[in-house]
Amino acid sequence: MFLKIHHFPGSADVVAVCDRELINTTITDKNVTVTVHDSFYGTDPASEEEVRAALKKAGNINIMGERAVNVAISLNLVTRSECIMIGKVPHAQIYQV
Question: Which residues span the domain enclosing 32?
Fold first, then answer.
């Protein structure tokens, strides 16, 4: 997986995680096209343990891909039914309110 933490002064960090094979690809569904950019999801591979630690501390989360979503599910941050599918790729956004 790839992991990048976006820091914004005065607001919660955004943790972005995606599966390795999705980086710099474009996913298309009927009404949606998403390009999974390394500028957003990062260029440094992260272990599952690193992803878990980042997600546990995250204020806001953007996750793309089966493995990334499964980590968030295992931490009870999101359920499968709360994810959307873009083609065959699960995606979720979790926001601190």
Answer: 2-82
Q: What is the pLDDT of residues 40-96, one digit of tens each?
A: 999 989 999 999 999 999 989 999 999 999 999 999 999 999 999 999 999 999 997
CA angle 97–23–56, rounded 5-degree value = 35
Q: Are strands 33-36 and 89-94 parallel, antiparallel or unpaired?
A: unpaired
pTM above 0.85, yes or no: yes
Residue 19 within a domain: yes
Residue 53 belongs to a domain: yes
- Cα-based distances in Å from 38 to 53, 54, 94: 21, 18, 20
